[in-house]
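Minimal example, chain plus zinc ion.
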Amino acid sequence: MALINCHECGREVSDSASLCPGCGAPIPTSQLKKSDRVPYSDQEVAIMLSKKKKTSHILHLILSVITGGLWIIIWVLVAISNSSDNSKIESQIKKGKKVK
Ligand SMILES: [Zn+2]
């Protein structure tokens, strides 16, 4: 929670307040968020989460057996790459989207 200055009286007001306790002036939404980012909607979050990659462990296990264990290297690389992509998606969701 941060403090912002009321645009009417200049008093410090909590950014979660909708009215200034000093003069009763409404705190505009644009002042509520100092950042230019807003959270994604539930629908957008769902779309982004659906882009997360799942490592198909069974497929990799079969390929590892067929190739005599050589595939394990690729398996690990794919798993690492997928988890880094997934954490990027999650941090993007946490940060919110940029306001145009
Ligand atoms: Zn005020």
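The mean pLDDT is 88. Residues 6, 8-9, 11, 20, 22-23, 25 surround zinc ion (CB under 6 Å).
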